[in-house]
Amino acid sequence: MRQLSKKPSMNIRYSLRITSFLAAAILCAGSSTFAQSGVNSRNLKFAAEVPLVDCDGMPCVEARMGTGPALKMGLDTGNVDSVLDSRYAEAAGLKATAPLPAGAPSGIFRTVIPSISVGTVTLENVRTLAMSLSDMISQNQMPHVDGTLAYTAFKDRILQIDFVARKVRISEVLTAPFDCSGACDKLSLIKFGKEGPPIVVADGFETNGKKFSAQIDTMYSGTLLVYTQSIEKLQLTEAAKTTKTRDFPFTDGGVQMKEAPAPKESFHALTLSGPAPLVYFPTPDVHEPAGLFDATVGLELFYHAALTLNFHDMTISVEKR
Questions:
Q1: CATH of the domain spanning 46-170
Q2: Which of 129, 305, 288 is nearest to 215 (CA)?
Q3: Contact, 22 vs 99, CB < 8 A?
Q4: Is 117 exposed, middle or buried (0-12, 13-18, 19+ CB in 10 A)?
Q5: Same fold for the pair 46-170 and 183-320
Q6: How far apart are CA 77 and CA 200, in angstroms?
Q7: Euclidean distance between CA atoms 168 and 48, whole angstroms
Q8: What is the β-pairing status of strands 295-297 and 210-216?
Q9: Which residues pair with 183 in a beta bridge?
Q10: In sequence order, which residues have a C-beta less than 8 Å from that of residue 199 and are 6 or more positions away?
Q11: In this predicted structure, what is the pLDDT of residue 104?
Q12: CA-to-CA distance for 274 and 122, rounded, in angstroms?
């Protein structure tokens, strides 16, 4: 639901996004039961383990392009395109690789980062939008970052964000399936609305005794956002009548959401919510996915867990730590 655009008509992602940059028109893979479970990270040897850096509450890692400076890069599983501040893109000699949609804001160009290192892992051919971030940061529409790494940067790898140990772990490129165990389900790439880009959606979540599918957005700072078309399905009609709101400055360029006490929030019977669970509902400024999935889950749901996303086998695993 977040967008990266100056106006709602021009979005690069119609999902929970960290600010607004541009608009692009840049299948639902159905199955809601996943018999196996998730990656058992204790049996996986990761190629890199680096500190999880706090960027105004958002998850970041330190990365580097060649011999260039250390960059603070947000981890953005809710976006198909990575982002790089234009000053670093220009210093690295990156050039435009494809035109943007008509009406896109000036100063933005689509490019590819040939390689960017996170610890001992090198991510290659990272599709990226280069743009100036200073205005958005100064207006508190984006955290203090030098860019973001979208889920596509981790193609065929396993990405683990361990919020308890404050570590980020990344595998080498996988060439064979990796078996999983524990609380796990399938990841699907589903468009955010009829014209939006494909975003990462998982089954296996539950609240109020009802199962639901949710976008995994590591740059959404809330717990659970239930979209309008799924409120009745999850039997949250009374909760959605709340008049209490909370500001989310890094979502859709800054929006309010309605906040209410929630039933327990879990993933495959693994309770993720704290002692006083909260649920959020859209206001008119929040972008919705046209009923293609039920909700978005964010950082506050995973604070006591390790979130493991396998972008080779397309699975999600959650472990309480």
A1: 2.40.70.10
A2: 288
A3: no
A4: middle
A5: yes
A6: 7
A7: 8
A8: parallel
A9: 318
A10: 13, 15, 78, 79, 80, 189, 190, 191, 192, 215, 217
A11: 81
A12: 36
Burial zone of 233 (CB within 10 Å; 0-12 exposed, 13-18 middle, 19+ buried): middle
Protein fold of 183-320: Cathepsin D, subunit A; domain 1 (2.40.70)
Q: Which two tokens stand for residue 243?
A: 């008049």
Q: Which residues contact 181 (CB under 8 A, 6 or more apart)?
A: 36, 37, 38, 39, 40
Segment (H or E) for 91: helix 86-91
> From CA 221, how far away is CA 192, in angstroms rounded?
19
pTM above 0.90, yes or no: no
Instruction: List pLDDT tens digits, range 225-254.
Output: 999 999 999 999 999 999 999 999 998 888
C-alpha span between 159 and 172 (Å, rounded): 10
Contact indicator for 218, 187 with CB cutoff of 8 Å: no
What percent of the chain stands above pLDDT 70? 87
- For residue 28, pLDDT over 80 is answered with no
First to last CA, the chain: 29
Q: Locate the domains of the chain by residue range.
A: 46-170, 183-320
Sequence-distant (6+) residues with CB within 8 A of 37 are 180, 181, 182, 183, 184, 268, 317
Number of C-beta neighbours around residue 103 at 10 A: 12
Q: What is the pLDDT of residue 14?
A: 35
- Tokens for 67, please give them: 């011999």
